[in-house]
Design a protein that fits this description.
- By secondary structure, the protein is an alpha+beta fold.
- Helices cover 17% and strands 33% of the residues.
- The chain contains two helices and four strands.
- Strands 1-2-3-4 form a four-stranded antiparallel sheet.
- A hairpin with a 2-residue loop joins strand 2 (43-51) and strand 3.
- The protein starts with 8 loop residues before the first helix and ends in a 21-residue tail after the last strand.
Length: 115
Amino acid sequence: GGFFIGVSPEWQLACGTVAYFETRRPELAERHGWQPWLEARSLGFTKDVTHGFFRYRHVVCSRQCTDASIGASTSDGTVLAGELCTSYAAFLGRESPAEAEDASVLDRALSPSEL
């Protein structure tokens, strides 16, 4: 037996940093494959990623800004991610092997002699 301990702190920091910059603007998030997370209080996105042979759902939430308090010119009212609130990856399990994609073999009925 065994158990999953988790990814390294370095991986979490690197992914959180990339996630923040990929989701600073909603149009950037869409371009990078992020989906809006409607349960976020302000600005949130989710993205399913594969790292090694494992799948994760990455979540990033930021505080929305529409002013220049973060050093960006937003006189046009553009929504920006101002402060990173949280970023985490939820473990979804092992990546499915390529041969398991054809489920027709898995649904085949076995004869009594095969059982």
